[in-house]
Design a protein that fits this description.
The chain has 293 residues and is an alpha/beta fold. The chain has one domain (59-284): Alkaline Phosphatase, subunit A. Helix content is 26%, strand content 18%. The chain has helices spanning 9-23, 56-59, 66-75, 89-98, 120-126, 201-219, 262-272; strands at 45-51, 77-83, 131-135, 147-148, 151-152, 169-171, 185-189, 224-230, 240-241, 243-247, 254-261. Strand 4 (147-148) and strand 5 (151-152) form a beta hairpin. The longest helix is centred in the C-terminal third of the chain and has 19 residues, at 201-219. The relative contact order is 0.23.
Length: 293
Amino acid sequence: MAFARPRTLTALATGLGLVAGSLGLWAAGGSAAADTVPALPAPDHVVVVMLENHAYSQVIGSSSAPYINKTLVAGGAKLTQSYGLTHPSQPNYYMLFSGSSQGVTDDSCVDVGALQEPNLASELLAAGQSWASYNEGLPAQGATDCRVGDYAQKHNPWFGFGNVPTDSAFGMDAFPSDFSTLPKVSFVVPDLCNDMHDCSVGTGDAWLKSNLGAYADWAKTHNSLLVVTFDEDNRLAGNRIPTVLYGEHVTPGSSSSATYNHYDVLRTLEDLAGLSSHAGNAASATDITGIWN
């Protein structure tokens, strides 16, 4: 009598996997897609830096931005099809922060605290998470001045919302040297020179290295993330902007060619923080993928 050859363990495992897949019985936390596409990480700290008015090609690959290119891009990830949503600056900040322009169409100073719509900060605070902004040139903690020197309120959308405490806005001098004390999510907003609005790409690049370089290095080994993005382009490139991510869970030298905009960045920030809610158009946006390790 001939006996059937025993199946190998590999063959058995393959067969069981096929059966499980056909029955929808993947192991907890997994799926066919999840086995090949890493899920979003859960960083302890996320710092978002907003820069100004430059197109992708003016920064990415430019010799004027050695820190961004040789450190952040080389050791992190770039989004090659990242877009602002409108012009001028201020509506883009509101879109990134709250998933909507909230009716803001220009760069005029807004009524402080007039809005009550959900936003990234209000969602974080409601979930028991921490939030702060660090604004270069802010006259004092929580100051709501429209314009003082190179400081401009138009780049600080949190002041438009009554559900975000004004005292969660600090000057850049309050950015901690002990990065473990940073909030869960924070925004850093340079002044009108250092954000590349009034000064050169090189000026902004040097400021970024000087003020956030140490945090970026620390984030690489402390479950944290740095996001550098722009509000809008120079009005000559279809609003295609640089967006770079750098941290422990970002695959070095990676890139994504998927199309993203401010709503997608907001959605990703919300999901990185483990929030169950999504503000405005972030509810129908998509998470950034293809760069996580």
